[in-house]
Each structure stands twice: as structure tokens, then as C-alpha cells.
């Protein structure tokens, strides 16, 4: 065997051996474990994305069914949280409106009391005028 053939054989063995031992790096953001960890940590938006990435790259199976259910649960949770935030804002607005109306009611009652007092004074004046005649 010539030196060139030996070098070619060694290179062939290294290439074949390297391919057999080399595996592609895991897809960043596409593992189910990562999505589960994000969900546990409360990073729900990122977990929904990670579940979606996982589902896009994996064939249907038990794990993908669980991932889909988890993703939908988190989507529902995020939707409910957004709705709750809107309702809190609306509640704050309604409380402000109620406080304004409460203030208006106090002012109207005070004005009614003043008008009653004025009316009572006018009645007294009218009675005095009647007695003079």
C-alpha cells in the first residue's frame, strides 16, 4: 500500500468514524424539556413559543399531544390574564366614576339643604307679612 493510499484510508476512517460519533446539536428552543422548564418558571409566553417549536419539528405522538395540550393550556392562561388585566382597568375606571358621582351626590344634597333652609326662611318672611296685614 502506498503512502497516498494509507493517507486516504486514514482520512476515510476518520471521516466515517467522525460522522458516526458526531450528532447534530439539539435544536435550540425546540426541546420539550426546555418548554416544560419555562412553563414551571412562569415564563409562559416563551413556553408557548417553545412548545410551538417542539410541535413544528416532531411527528405526532404521546409527547406531542402533551405538548399541544400544555401549549393550549398556557394560551388559555395568558388569555385569561390579559382579560383580567382589562377588567382591573375597567374596575379602576368605574371606581373613579363612582367617586365622581359620589362627590356630585354630596354637592346636590348640600344644595338641597341650602334650598330647604332658604325656603324655610321665605316661609317665615311670608308668615310675618301675613300677620302684619
List the helices and strands and how they pair.
Elements: H1 3-21, H2 32-41, H3 44-57, H4 62-132
Helix pairs in contact: 2-3, 3-4
Structure explained in plain terms:
The chain is an all-alpha fold and 133 residues long. The chain has one domain (3-132). 86% of the residues lie in helices and 0% in strands. It contains 4 helices and no strands. It has helices spanning 3-21, 32-41, 44-57, 62-132. α3 (44-57) runs antiparallel to α4 (62-132). The longest helix is centred in the last third of the chain and has 71 residues, at 62-132. The protein is rod-shaped, with a radius of gyration of 40 Å.
Radius of gyration: 40 Å
Distance between the termini: 149 Å
Shape: rod-shaped
H/E element sequence: HHHH
Structural class: mainly alpha
Overall pLDDT score:
83
Q: How is the biggest beta sheet arranged? A: none
Total domains, how many? 1
**Total number of helical segments?**
4
The unreliable regions are: 19-25
| Number of DSSP-assigned strands | 0
Helix content: over 70%
Strand content: under 5%
Amino acid at each position: 500500500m502506498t503512502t497516498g493510499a494509507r493517507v486516504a484510508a486514514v482520512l476515510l476512517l476518520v471521516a466515517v468514524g467522525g460522522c458516526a460519533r458526531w450528532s447534530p446539536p439539539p435544536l435550540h428552543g425546540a426541546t420539550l424539556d426546555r418548554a416544560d422548564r419555562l412553563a414551571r418558571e412562569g415564563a409562559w409566553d416563551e413556553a408557548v413559543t417553545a412548545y410551538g417549536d417542539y410541535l413544528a419539528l416532531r411527528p405526532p405522538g404521546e409527547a406531542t399531544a402533551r405538548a399541544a395540550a400544555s401549549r393550549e393550556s398556557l394560551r388559555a392562561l395568558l388569555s385569561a390574564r390579559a382579560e383580567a388585566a382589562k377588567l382591573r382597568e375597567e374596575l379602576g375606571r368605574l371606581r373613579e366614576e363612582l367617586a365622581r358621582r359620589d362627590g356630585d351626590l354630596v354637592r346636590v344634597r348640600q344644595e338641597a339643604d341650602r334650598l330647604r333652609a332658604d325656603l324655610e326662611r321665605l316661609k317665615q318672611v311670608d308668615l310675618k307679612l301675613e300677620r302684619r296685614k
